[in-house]
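Annotated sample (chain length 271).
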Amino acid sequence: MRIARFTTGGDPQYGFVQKEGGKKYRAVITGDPLFMKANPTGERIPLDDWDGVGEESASAVRLLTPVIPRSKVVCVGLNYIDHIREMGHDEPTQPVLFLKPNTAVIGPDDPIVLPEWSDEVSYEVELAIVIGRICKDVSEENALKYVLGYTIGNDVTARDAQRADGQWARAKSFDTACPLGPWIETDFDFENAEITSRVNGEVKQHSNTAQMLFNVPYLVSYISAAMTLLPGDVILTGTPAGVGRIDVGDVVECEIEGIGTLRNPVLRATA
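Output written by the structure step:
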């Protein structure tokens, strides 16, 4: 099941992305499915042949980020061997964790705005876990019971600031540094999914989630031992090799097999 958050010009709404007779549509539901039972309103918004990029529906529907994290985005660094090697780090024995604020989150087709203080910003496609229940000290065996579903993230990073600061907060937390979307997929094979990023149509990263050092149940369990995860919190699970620079005018596409494609243009902040 795919849960989308969208607007037709008014307040955000939620809907299930479904298909009938070869046509896609969004079945509108009441309220926020993270916190209440999802009840269909009966309204259907048709979609053309579309996987999250370039909607062509005449209904002026705009996708929003499928979730605004209620308290935090927990990020996992150095979780793919090939990326560890390209960054020149040793293989970690435990997950490397850092945080992004929810003010960094943007949705599909929203612009990534390069900060004035950075001259080297890069993309990082990542599988994102969306937490569905209050989660604290859970076992690996029970971890998936606390997961609502999965979406796509882009861990946008100011590399020059990361090197200069010696830690990652400023480099990874600036406004627009966390695109999420296009929707939440609840039925997803996280153990074997192709993961790809493209800049201006050119493939930059290509790997498989099977290459993660620490898998989804382990990460949920490990993180919940350190901090309480709340409904709507997001875990970014790391990026494969091939990270690189983006610049004004670029278009970044992050794609995960079984979920869809997250697309964002790149702009520069002005004084």
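Annotation: Residues 216-226 form the longest helix (11 residues).
Annotation: The first strand starts at residue 2 and ends at 7.
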